[in-house]
Amino acid sequence: xxxxxxxxxxxxxxxxxxxxxxxxxxxxxxxxxxxxxxxxxxxxxxxxxxxxxxxxxxxxxxxxxxxxxxxxxxxxxxxxxxxxxxxxxxxxxxxxxxxxxxxxxxxxxxxxxxxxxxxxxxxxxxxxxxxxxxxxxxxxxxxxxxxxxxxxxxxxxxxxxxxxxxxxxxxxxxxxxxxxxxxxxxxxxxxxxxxxxxxxxxxxxxxxxxxxxxxxxxxxxxxxxxxxxxxxxxxxxxxxxxxxxxxxxxxxxxxxxxxxxxxxxxxxxxxxxxxxxxxxxxxxxxxxxxxxxxxxxxxxxxxxxxxxxxxxxxxxxxxxxxxxxxxxxxxxxxxxxxxxxxxxxxxxxxxxxxxxxxxxxxxxxxxxxxxx
Length: 372
What we know:
The chain is built from 13 helices and 19 strands. It is of the alpha/beta class. Helix 11 links the parallel strand 16 (286-296) and strand 17 (308-313).
């Protein structure tokens, strides 16, 4: 009796796992940008694709890390990563050369030699609703949270901070438009025929920057008739829901400060944190409102009314200011408030990228500061 070949799906079940599809690097970068738009990052930040091997470059393995150190880069090479997603940008200050002299230059050399791209999202991941700060709130238990500094829609309006509208008759229209077009930082200039008090006129509308606004107003003020018919509108970009820097969390039930500390230590997997008691506070004082910011939170948390500040690091004098105002402070070291997010990120990106590539989290990545 001849041997029967098992159905193909049985072979897959008994043998190798299903083969993942490769992704072109630029396709993957576009998908990562869709997951968290680089436009949400702080203006001072350096985000996006930082190192690109010569095309074509395909990605089978995406390697996640909080900090890209030389030890972590060696791990990425050993695990045959095609793209490293480093939460912190390893290239921040401009490089004047790429040699073997400094560790950050060596990272670039190693990446290019091994055809590994480097991508960094940094503060874009701080801002998004499903990002680092949202993950940090989960250490507090059941709570509601809102961004401390909400993000605005990056592309609305596209240009300008102000809109200027005025009416002009045929006698003045051409001369005024000619002069306006010579002013830099003018956009969206439109004209529309209108009837004003029985007379045919033209309604002029334009967008401009704060600097250009001064020149437009100066020009229109030279003709009192035009100036009296001028309207100036401030263009405000709409706020994005649940998006922005930091979070102000309101706990569903107050906790003692000591219980809050234990919850945070458990969430971050830390045996110790640093604690500064607010003036008049004890370990049994109730905590209802917590202002938090992953990483270095001084500038984001400053001036916020809360029972507790939670962040990675703050300056000595900012801690003193908070304590003097009756606000307790928990410091966990910078990257300890970020690194745990990587496991959650892996799951989210697996879904977002439709399971097309292999995603792994670094085992060598760690905060440089340890309790001795």
